[in-house]
Recover the amino acids of this structure.
């Protein structure tokens, strides 16, 4: 009975990912052979929560029959030539040399196209999953394997949806492990095993690589000691945040600002800097996209959409934990205005992740019934002259279920603009987070 074909490369990638889930514990890097291998590899990388990159290889085609490859050139300079095929071809050394040089230029151009100014991935000591959409003869894959091996990886796993058995057997000497879902005894063309084998475009490759970079974030080890901008997926939008990680950080504080503010708020940045001086990493991010902020500036509707703000804060919390690195540090939430309500709801929904909450001039009352479910230690900071908000915080204080304190800054109004008021907020918040995160 003929094996079931794949619907398309996405389906093939999802089925291949299920076979490769055991490698997730090795924190691998997924390398795709562009262009057709990228949609397959993107599904593997997403399922394993692994970074995705390309490894560019170009086939050396016979001049009068370009689809027939007599070898391949890979990034890094490796050249693979099929001695058996060359014996049958009337190609001079000059012909071969010109073809190799032309393909090297093409490889360099495609690396630039797909990777831009980013450096090549660091493979030394890592488990590498090399993915393509299928293997017929294996020439291009062999060149890729040889080049990757020269980078000193811990292990190379060659993974494909479909492959010719003889090619797979030959390549097994180049890889540490080979995984193929289908190995039909007579494989004439890879496309026969796909219902939809539409050619993958350069634009699609770039889109999938960018999507993966957004989903996975930068390598966690690359962010310590300086500020980086994160792009965090939250449902159908991408949110931007500024992450700063001091050396030997003891915890991570995520800022959820409120109505009419942004991650560039000087008040939040002042507090964030004070927290970093206490050894706490900080992430200031926007709960709304730039387009949503523009609409909200007109009708002030989204800033009071507490379920939306809370859902996005929960999604950011989940993303940080999956990302690892600073995201795995003990997590605190700092909410201002309506952001405080979002922080309390997130703390109630993620009790194992959120270890402490601080509200600055916040509206915890807008968290509704979630206030009764919060178990994370919560500090409510309110200005003494912010009468209405102070009364709302007193009511919320009575509802909170976990360890809690209500700190009133004498003489301060809602924005804590009075001399020394914001410094007191930073001192109180820093002491609270150090106490419960450190």
């Amino acid at each position: 009975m003929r094996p079931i074909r794949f619907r398309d490369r996405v389906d093939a990638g999802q089925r291949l990912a299920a076979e490769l889930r055991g490698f997730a514990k090795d924190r691998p890097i997924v390398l795709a052979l562009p262009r057709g291998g990228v949609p397959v590899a993107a599904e593997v990388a997403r399922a394993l929560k692994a970074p995705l990159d390309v490894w560019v290889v170009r086939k050396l085609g016979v001049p009068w029959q370009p689809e027939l490859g007599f070898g391949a050139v890979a990034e890094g300079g490796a050249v693979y030539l099929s001695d058996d095929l060359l014996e049958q071809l009337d190609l001079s050394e000059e012909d071969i040399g010109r073809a190799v040089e032309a393909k090297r230029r093409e490889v360099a151009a495609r690396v630039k196209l797909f990777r831009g100014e980013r450096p090549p991935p660091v493979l030394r000591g890592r488990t590498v999953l090399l993915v393509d959409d299928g293997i017929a003869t294996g020439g291009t894959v062999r060149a890729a394997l040889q080049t990757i091996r020269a980078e000193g990886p811990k292990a190379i796993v060659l993974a494909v949806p479909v492959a010719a058995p003889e090619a797979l057997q030959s390549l097994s000497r180049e890889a540490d492990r080979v995984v193929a879902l289908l190995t039909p005894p007579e494989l004439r063309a890879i496309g026969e095993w796909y219902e939809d084998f539409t050619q993958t475009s350069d634009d699609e490759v770039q889109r999938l690589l960018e999507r993966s970079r957004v989903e996975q974030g930068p390598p966690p080890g690359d962010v310590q000691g300086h500020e980086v901008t994160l792009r965090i997926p939250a449902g159908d939008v991408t949110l931007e945040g500024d992450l700063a990680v001091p050396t030997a950080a003891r915890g991570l504080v995520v800022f959820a600002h409120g109505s009419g503010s942004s991650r560039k708020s000087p008040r939040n940045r002042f507090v964030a800097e004070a927290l970093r001086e206490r050894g706490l990493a900080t992430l200031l991010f926007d709960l709304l996209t730039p387009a949503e902020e523009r609409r909200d500036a007109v009708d002030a509707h989204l800033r009071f959409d507490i379920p939306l703000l809370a859902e996005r804060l929960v999604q950011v919390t989940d993303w940080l934990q999956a990302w690892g690195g600073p995201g795995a540090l003990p997590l605190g939430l700092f909410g201002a205005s309506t952001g405080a309500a979002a922080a309390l709801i997130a703390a109630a929904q993620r009790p194992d992740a959120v270890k402490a909450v601080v509200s600055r001039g916040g509206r915890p009352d807008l968290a509704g019934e979630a206030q009764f479910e919060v178990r994370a230690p919560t500090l409510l900071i309110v200005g003494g002259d912010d009468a209405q908000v102070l009364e709302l915080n007193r009511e919320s204080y009575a509802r909170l279920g976990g360890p809690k304190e209500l700190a009133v800054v004498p003489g301060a109004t809602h924005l804590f603009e009075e001399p020394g008021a914001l410094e007191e907020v930073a001192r109180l918040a820093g002491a609270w987070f150090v106490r419960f995160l450190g």
